[in-house]
Amino acid sequence: ENIIMKRNIFLAVFIILVYSASVYALDFSGNLAYSRQYDLSEQNLSNTLNLDLNFTHNFSDEIFAEGDLVIRYSDKSSTSPFMIIPKEIYIGAYDLIPQLDIKTGLLIISWGSADMLSPLDNFNPLPPGLSFTSMTQKNGVLAADATYYFNDITYYCIHDIRYTIYHP
Question: Which residue of 9, 50, 79, 134 has the lowest C-beta tally within 10 Å?
């Protein structure tokens, strides 16, 4: 009964997202992946359904919003059976100021050109327990990114917003 309710919630969220794409003229793409794992030590079978949605919305020719959301639905063996995980969500502007591109929000910032582990690519953390083979699943960080083009030279400036929340 609980699994049926969770499945219905997942389907309702999916239908709302598809409907909002047509109403608000959002451009959606993504993939749906099903995985099944068996834990030998606990003798437990778990099922997971991941919906990875990428969206883009142009407010004008210069201003846009982009994002990447993961909607994960797991069976009752999971501690968090239903999760919506924002990977990257930001607002950007091209040429609002001549030769300057700006992005701000939850960003995945890539540096270097290594396939797996780049020594320069240390802005974005990997989710806990993720293997090195899934580098596309990095978490975004709150940041502002500015790119200035001057003739054949490109200047980058990234401000990574870090904050600490104190709980006594």
Answer: 79
Q: Name the residue ranges covered by the structural domains of the chain.
A: 2-160
Q: How distant is the alpha carbon of residue 102 from its chain centre?
A: 19
Cα angle 163-126-83, degrees, rounded to a multiple of 5: 85
Count CB atoms within 10 A of the CB of residue 18. Answer: 11
**Secondary structure class of 133 (helix, strand, coil):** coil
- The CA–CA distances, whole Å, from 111 to 122, 123, 124, 151 equal 8, 9, 10, 22
Q: Please, what sign has the CA dihedral across residues 124, 127, 132, 135?
A: negative
Stated pTM of the model: 0.66
φ, ψ for residue 136 (rounded to 5)? Answer: -75, -10
Contact yes or no for 6/72 (Cβ under 8 A)? no
